[in-house]
Design brief:
By secondary structure, this protein is an all-alpha fold. Helices cover 71% and strands 3% of the residues. Strands 1-2 form a two-stranded antiparallel ribbon. The two termini are 42 Å apart. Pfam families: 7tm_1 (PF00001).
Amino acid sequence: MSSASTESPDLSTFYEYYDNYNDAPKPCSKESVRRFSASFLPVLYSLVFLVGLTGNILVIVVLFKYKRLKSMTDVYLLNLAISDLLFVLSLPFWSYFTVDQWVFGTPWCKIISWIYLVGFYSGIFFIMLMSIDRYLAIVRAVFSLKARTAFHGLITSLVIWLVAFLASVPELVFRESFNEHNYTTCKPRYPGNFTTWKLFSTLEINILGLLIPFIVMTFCYSMIIKTLVHCRNEKKNKAVKMIFVVMIVFFCFWTPYNIVIFLQLLETMGVMRDCQVSTNLDYAFQVTEILGLFHCGLNPVIYFFMGEKFKKYLKMLFKNWHLPGYVCKWCGVHITYHTESTSSFHTQSTGDQDAL
């Protein structure tokens, strides 16, 4: 990996713990960090890739085949699955990078880094929109009858993707593949003051990826809980519970990463100069980044264990698809199937409609 100074704290830089290698006060060897990365990261990236790819493709197939994108919630779930896929499709490139060097050239360096960051921003934005969707359905039920349509879901989704694209533009502009100390790396080359750009990049991730969503979701769920206390409804409770779990899981898996990159910013600004602290931050960066990456495969698991409809849809899908049905039969798993029209899964009331 690269042994230059850290050029960016953004989400596409799994590997930039090496970038502090020569930046820290001498002597400060980080060979142990480097060995840890080469030994464990490729295996973990591969695991995340397989789980995330399989789970999110199943969600997309279920949404198109059975849900038919009839509601705003369906549209947001589809876009959330696409956002998670952006994460996992970039992992094979980073996996190779951790054990060798960047061999894919500058265009792919820009593109892969960009789509990863787009996936991060769009993912948290769609979780935020799903919270707003629940808020409208329960707290503003009358207004939601007109507002919560698939068409409005499509429009807001396009706006979210545009914001995510724009927020990730610095990756397209500054990312480059170049030779450094006889090693080909992929990282940003910022013009002018490096510390200023790093400050901007870190604050952008912390504010757009954590602070604003946290404020919006806290407001939405506080109002939802207040409303449900006075008006109990089992279907609404189940729908809120699923979206709430999706939100909590996101913050549990990504908040540690945001904290670590902020501490790395303090290190770059000279607030922390201890070699051991720098090394520990490098380890923490790797661990928290992997923790965040595992999140992209968790949403389908949440849908399966908390969504009765999603379980039914999967049974229907596996029943009609010969290969998984054969595998399940070979494994001794019997899939029960009850003929049921697609429309029977769809609740017309916008207030009672659950996630999956």
